[in-house]
Design brief:
CATH superfamily of the largest domain: NADH-ubiquinone oxidoreductase 51kDa subunit
Distance between the termini: 28 Å
Helix content: 25-40%
InterPro entries: 4Fe4S_Fe-S-bd (IPR017896), 4Fe4S_Fe_S_CS (IPR017900), Helical_ferredxn (IPR009051), Ion_transpt_RnfC/RsxC (IPR010208), Nuo51_FMN-bd (IPR011538), Nuo51_FMN-bd_sf (IPR037225), PduS (IPR017054), RnfC_N (IPR026902)
Number of helices: 16
Keywords: 4Fe-4S, Electron transport, Iron, Iron-sulfur, Metal-binding, Repeat, Transport
Strand order of the largest sheet: 9-8-10-6-7-12
Shape: globular
GO molecular function: 4 iron, 4 sulfur cluster binding; electron transfer activity; metal ion binding
Number of domains: 4
Bound molecules: iron/sulfur cluster
Strand content: 15-25%
Protein name: Na+-translocating ferredoxin:NAD+ oxidoreductase RNF, RnfC subunit
CATH architecture of the largest domain: 3-Layer(aba) Sandwich
CATH class of the largest domain: Alpha Beta
CATH topology of the largest domain: Rossmann fold
Radius of gyration: 22 Å
Organism: Anaerovirgula multivorans
């Protein structure tokens, strides 16, 4: 079996973000192989933990992937402040005589946005609406590289390292089987410290929000990076309580067209024709400018405009997200947009300092509290979603009553599909197949 087949069989997808299937990403050639090791979102610790504990596995795998892609350079993007991780990677590079280079960058947000990272590490501008391969680059993150290492050693993606923090007794890194309930994760972290909390799955800027009342529906997936518990009245949740009409009405009455949202927009600063203040103006008073709304397709929803820049507390990011959904339903593509401009001359001075962002979000009190050791969860049951990422859902190949071993293939896609196989994350009996596969460990399960 070749490398890509092993990655496909093991069901590897991007360990963060949209979860793009990895066997497709690494199919073809690229000049640069870049590794996103900057841990983009504030508070998260998972990637740094992996670097400290699996640096040799990471470097070894990067060499294999670079050979596969005929990449001339391997560059790992890391923040200057992360000195322990720098040491771990440097030692691994030396021990393995690797050609991987470490590129240190400032502690700004969103350093890990793919388009921003490519510019920082290579000085190449991805065209608006383009992908890294357009400029000869493939980007992967640390968690994905670790999963590829496991895949090359015949181990499927069955578990996930995640950070759990915020209002929990013991902020920690957890090692949880895919499909573990978020409730079980909270229990393993010692439980919540407050009664009225909501949950962010992912980072505080871009993660999805789960209300406490929906807790029983949420599980760990292949793309879950973090679980953050915050008080229900926290500033991060305020926009979630408004619908689109309310947001537009507020913009109409309160947007002062100061253009700070555009001035600090990271995509605008690297030369993309994205102007959130123009989108806000168009929605509020100038609805004939349909072309301007298409700029929303270039928005990565980093949240800088909404949670950092806007002095009026408006919601350009959330509005852009809604516009993107509507335009995609209409089949509108990025390609209709004008070409990019030069990188903004003030870009260096307009980067958002991550420390300042933490204070602005009232999250500084939750940083640097993670225990060094990780906790392994062994749940009694898991509910593994058949759709966990971008692309096609997997099709179940098991039935209720089947007994499965950990690591056994339970749902599959065809090799050419934009999708990924799914494997049992615990040993047990199939209880239900219904958009997810429910496996119950139970003491009575006997393997034949
Ligand atoms: S920063 Fe806020 S007030 Fe200023 S233009 Fe943007 S949305 Fe309007
Ligand atoms: S969320 Fe706002 S700041 Fe971020 S890319 Fe979109 S428009 Fe720009």
């Amino acid at each position: 079996m070749d490398i890509l087949q092993k990655i496909f069989q093991a069901g590897v997808v991007g360990a963060g973000g949209a979860g793009f299937p990895t066997h497709i990403k690494f199919n073809g050639v690229a000049e640069y192989l870049l590794v996103n090791a900057v841990e983009c979102e504030p508070l998260l610790e998972t990637d740094k933990f992996l670097i400290r504990h699996k640096s040799k596995e990471i470097i070894k795998t990067l060499e294999i992937l670079a050979r596969q892609m005929k990449a001339k350079k391997i560059i790992i993007g890391l923040k200057k402040k992360n000195t322990r991780e720098f040491r771990a990677l440097s030692q691994a590079i030396e021990a393995l005589n690797s050609r991987a280079e470490l590129h240190l960058i400032d502690n700004f947000y969103p350093a890990g946005d793919e388009q921003i990272l490519v510019y920082e590490l290579t000085n190449r501008q991805i065209p608006p609406g383009g992908i890294p391969k357009d400029v000869g680059v493939v980007v992967c993150n640390v968690g994905t590289v670790v999963n590829v290492y496991e895949a090359l050693n015949e181990k499927s993606v069955t578990d996930k390292f995640i950070t759990i923090l915020g209002e929990v007794q013991n902020p920690s890194v957890l090692y949880a089987p895919i499909g573990t309930s978020i409730e079980a994760c909270i229990e393993m972290a010692g439980g919540a410290t407050i009664e009225d909390y909501n949950i962010i799955l992912g980072g505080p800027m871009m993660g999805g929000v789960i209300e406490k009342s929906q807790l029983n529906e949420a599980v760990v997936t292949k793309t879950t990076g973090a679980v953050i518990l915050l008080p229900q009245n926290h500033v991060i949740f305020k926009n979630k309580q408004q619908d689109l009409v309310q947001m537009i009405n507020r913009s109409r009455s309160a947007c002062i067209q100061c253009s700070l949202c555009t001035d600090l927009c990271p995509r605008n600063l690297i030369g993309h024709p994205l102007r959130p203040h123009r989108i806000m103006r168009t929605l509020s008073i100038d609805r004939q400018q349909y072309e301007v709304l298409k700029e929303a397709l270039l928005c990565c929803e980093c949240g800088v405009c909404e949670l950092y820049a806007c002095p009026m507390g408006l919601s350009p990011k959330t509005i852009n997200g809604e516009i993107k959904n509507l335009l995609r339903k209409e089949g509108v593509k990025y390609s209709n947009l004008p070409m990019q401009k030069e990188v903004h001359e003030m870009r260096e001075y307009r980067k958002v300092p991550a420390e300042r962002l933490l204070c602005r979000l009232d999250l500084a009190g939750y940083s640097d509290k993670i225990n060094e050791d990780y906790i392994t969860i062994e749940p009694q049951s898991v509910k593994i979603p058949l759709r966990q990422h971008i692309g096609k859902a997997a099709t179940s190949i098991v039935e209720v009553g089947d007994v499965v071993e950990k690591g056994q293939l339970i749902a599959s896609v065809n090799e050419g599909d934009l999708g990924a196989n799914i494997h049992a994350s615990i040993k047990g009996m199939i209880k239900e197949v219904n958009g997810f596969i429910w496996i119950e460990a139970g003491e009575k399960v006997v393997m034949e």
